[in-house]
Design a protein that fits this description.
With 549 residues, the chain is α/β, with parallel strands linked by helices. It has three domains: 128 residues, Response regulator (Rossmann fold); 147 residues, Rossmann fold (3-Layer(aba) Sandwich); 155 residues, Rossmann fold (3-Layer(aba) Sandwich), CATH 3.40.50.720. The chain is 47% helix and 19% strand. The strands form four sheets. Strands 16-15-14-13-17-18-19 form a seven-stranded mixed sheet. α4 runs antiparallel to α6 and α18 crosses α19.
């Protein structure tokens, strides 16, 4: 792409709209635009076969092709070119579908001026670059598409919509890591992403994961923004971590890695800047090392720099169980809403990490039969309900569920298709696609992990009448616990366990009630309702603060 001139292919059959668009582009002084205009898809494809364009402006209703097929034909000929959809007020639903299919943005032709058009083109090109670099991530695309659906329903201002698609700040680092054997020095990559600073300091996890990338972290940071906004916490979303497998390192290696990573991101973190907390591959001990490294640099102890640290260092009581506890609170609230009796209800838990173990135990304590649980290697099933005490003891001794004698062995695909009342997802993202959704047999599906359900699967589940508790609602317990931990330090008032549990419960149930009210009022699913609730709060804050300078 030229830095001085952007080449535009305009595919539009209405000559009036063509002239208007060309005139608007001519008004823009920086950058300049070189426009080729055609009035059919066939002519546009011929241009794309012969030349490379920086951007395509595309009307979806043309003489030789209409609706989504128009976009798909253009995309097949120019997969490397960003596309902006041109639409009328009566066709915006079709335009949103095209964005869900991969287009970068849509514009209503009757509401355009030169600044809106230029901003959309720049945004589309930056979005395309981000998606096709290290930020190319299925999870990021999913989170962006879910957000765009909610933004369309509430007619979100273009400026806010385009701003919230991207993280506000990202830091990518590389640093040497020395193993226990001194001659072993490897270069590892780390990240810290802050999606939004409008609401206050950012808050988000630190992951040590071998397949970590900037796209996934951007998606998780965006999701954390929605969790905090939905739960009315005074934070924006963040996420970070190191691309490595923590299971293959010693304790001393893990400490050196943590301290070096912390020193590299010191400029971004702090009690009034960004508060890291444990996530995949990290724990309270890692947070203690991060806190100590930051404190050594400052010259005094700063307990508020992280959350999820050990209680003796000021960690909140019950932090480690907060994510699983929050998940169960939303499940119980959903069962009450559906008039579903808890006693004798059957639950299946996919994923048996910290969240899954806590959720399974608490579900059983609330009178619900947990008939199956699983980890990545498979699971165990008992039709009359598992003895969770025995399952938890076996898992602790064997570091997994493989061979557990508490019931019959079950694979993960089989587990997801078991007949049950409650399906709790606490494992990997992307578990539920359209095929899996079609075979699910549950009344409540609660997402205790980020991004487990594809956009298309949501529609299948809605048609089946499955009540979905979305991730930003069901998986907000750790964010709430971190907010409580941060607050107790800021007020020098430590929370007794009973008070902590009460506040966690009240925050989660209030968030559920507001989401359910939105769902009923808007006649949309719980996921879209939760996003609308969160986006509305963020939008109000951004508009009140205004634009600097």
């Amino acid at each position: 792409m030229s830095t001085d001139t952007i080449s535009v292919l305009l595919i539009e059959d209405n000559p009036i709209h063509t002239r208007v668009l060309e005139g608007l582009l001519n008004e823009i002084r920086t950058p300049r635009f070189a426009v080729d205009a055609v009035d059919t898809v066939t002519a546009g494809l011929e241009y794309l076969d012969e030349r490379t364009f920086d951007i395509v402006l595309l009307d979806l209703v043309l003489p030789d092709c209409q609706e989504l097929e128009t976009y798909l034909r253009v995309r097949s000929h120019a997969p490397e070119t960003p596309v902006i959809i041109l639409t009328g007020l009566d066709d915006t639903d079709l335009a949103v579908r095209a964005v869900e299919a991969g287009a970068q943005d849509y514009l209503v032709k009757t509401q355009l001026d030169s600044s809106v058009l230029a901003r959309s083109i720049r945004c589309a090109m930056e979005l395309y670059r981000a998606r096709h670099g290290e930020s190319d991530s299925p999870l990021l695309r999913l989170v962006q598409q879910q957000f765009l659906q909610a933004a369309f329903l509430v007619h979100l201002d273009d400026n806010v919509r385009q701003r919230l698609l991207f993280p506000q700040r990202t830091l990518t680092i590389s640093f040497p890591f020395r193993g226990d054997e001194h001659e072993q020095v490897n270069t590892v990559f780390g990240y810290r992403v802050q999606h939004l600073t409008t609401m206050g300091p950012t808050l988000g996890g630190v992951r040590y994961q071998s397949d970590l990338n900037l796209g996934d972290l951007s998606a998780l940071a965006m999701g954390m923004t929605w969790k905090c906004a939905l739960m009315q916490l005074p934070f924006g979303g963040a996420m970070g971590g190191v691309r490595m497998d923590p299971t293959g390192v010693s304790r001393s290696e893990l400490q050196r890695l943590t301290r070096r990573y912390t020193s590299e991101i010191l400029s971004m973190i702090g009690p009034d800047r960004d508060i890291p907390m444990p996530d995949v591959g990290t724990n309270a001990q890692v947070m203690a090392w991060m806190m100590d490294t930051h404190s050594q640099q400052r010259g005094y102890t700063v307990p508020t720099v992280v959350a999820g640290k050990p209680e003796i260092l000021g960690g909140a009581p019950g932090w480690n169980e907060a994510a699983g506890s929050g998940l169960v609170h939303t499940i119980l609230a959903a069962s009450t809403h559906l008039d579903m009796a808890r006693e004798g209800a059957r639950a299946v838990v996919r994923g048996f990490g910290n969240v899954g173990r806590t959720a399974a135990r608490l579900l059983q304590e609330n009178g619900i039969q947990v008939v199956a649980v699983s980890d990545d290697a498979g699971g165990v099933y008992h039709e009359q309900g598992l003895d969770m005490t025995a399952v938890l003891e076996y898992h602790a001794e064997n570091h997994g569920l493989k061979g557990c004698p508490a019931g019959d062995a079950v694979t993960n695909p089989e587990l997801l298709e078991l007949s049950c009342d409650i399906l709790a997802l606490t494992g990997n993202r992307g578990q539920i696609d359209t095929d899996t959704a079609d075979r699910i047999q549950c009344r409540i599906m609660a997402e205790g992990t980020d991004g487990p359900t594809t956009l298309e699967a949501d529609d299948v589940l809605a048609d089946k009448g499955v009540f979905v508790v979305p991730d930003i609602l069901a998986n907000a317990g750790a964010a709430i616990a971190s907010s409580l931990e941060w607050g107790q330090h800021m007020t020098a008032s430590m929370l007794p366990p009973a008070v902590f549990d009460k506040r966690l419960l009240s925050t989660v149930t209030d968030g559920f009630a507001r989401t359910l009210a939105r769902s009923r009022k808007r006649k949309v699913g719980m996921r879209t309702a939760a996003l609308i609730e969160a986006v509305d709060r963020v939008t109000q804050a951004k508009l009140l603060r205004g634009l600097f300078p």
